[in-house]
Amino acid sequence: MGIKIITENKKARFDYHILEKFEAGLVLTGSEVKSLRNGQANLKDSYIAFKGDEAFLQKAHISVYAASSYNNHEPERLRKLLLNRKELNKIFGALKEKGQTCVPLKMYFSKGKAKLEIALVKGKDKGDKRESIKKRDADRAVQKALKRSRD
Question: Residue 1 has what pLDDT?
Answer without folding.
Answer: 59
